């Protein structure tokens, strides 16, 4: 097989993109450098070869094929890194959405409590503790010894807050499940062992 580079379309823009691709080669992972010395050597060689159209045109076909294979390998490394970074981005966006939902529900409950207290002061009446709404009586236990809650704990807290906000009669059951599964799961497992 022969390769006629003169008849191929090689524009200055194409050369600029090849040059910039190799001159800006960094590790796909922040804070890391490509540690493979062979890969470093390949990048340096490709950078030198791709620095001008004349150098590329002067290359024999087998060198161009090798250069193409090296570029494909680098593209694969960067594609894998991109997929990992996008998965991390999606996970962080989901966590942000959970936290925003949690904060919104918490603020809604606080506003309802404030409004309830203001209404009681204006009316001057005392409410029967048996008929108080959930947002006044419910108390969610939380242990702050492990740092911020993980996504599963946050989802459980959101479920509780949503039920409290809606004055759902299932709040005691949801709270019990939360306490047994999240706050003290060891008590649940030791209870079955006896």
TrEMBL record:
The keyword Coiled coil is assigned to this record: yes
InterPro entries: FEZ
One GO cellular component term noted in the UniProt record for this chain: axon
Signal peptide region: none
Transmembrane segments: none
Keywords: Coiled coil, Phosphoprotein
Keyword Phosphoprotein: yes
Protein family per UniProt: Belongs to the zygin family.
Stated name of the protein: Fasciculation and elongation protein zeta 2
Organismal lineage: Eukaryota, Metazoa, Ecdysozoa, Nematoda, Chromadorea
């Amino acid at each position: 097989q022969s390769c006629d580079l003169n008849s191929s379309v090689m524009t200055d823009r194409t050369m600029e993109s090849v040059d910039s691709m190799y001159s800006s080669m960094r590790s796909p992972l922040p804070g890391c450098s490509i540690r493979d010395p062979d890969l470093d050597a390949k990048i340096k060689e490709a950078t030198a070869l791709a620095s001008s159209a004349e150098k590329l045109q002067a290359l024999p076909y087998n060198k161009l094929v090798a250069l193409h294979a090296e570029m494909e390998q680098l593209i694969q490394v960067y594609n894998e890194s991109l997929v990992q970074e996008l998965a991390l981005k999606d996970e962080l966006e989901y966590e942000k959405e959970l936290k925003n939902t949690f904060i919104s529900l918490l603020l809604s409950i606080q506003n309802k409590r404030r409004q309830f207290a203001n209404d009681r002061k204006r009316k001057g009446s005392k409410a029967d503790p048996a008929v108080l709404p959930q947002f006044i009586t419910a108390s969610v236990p939380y242990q702050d010894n492990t740092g911020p809650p993980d996504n599963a704990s946050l989802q459980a807290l959101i479920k509780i807050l949503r039920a409290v906000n809606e004055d759902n009669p299932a709040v005691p059951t949801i709270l019990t499940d939360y306490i047994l599964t999240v706050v003290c799961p060891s008590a649940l497992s030791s209870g079955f062992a006896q």
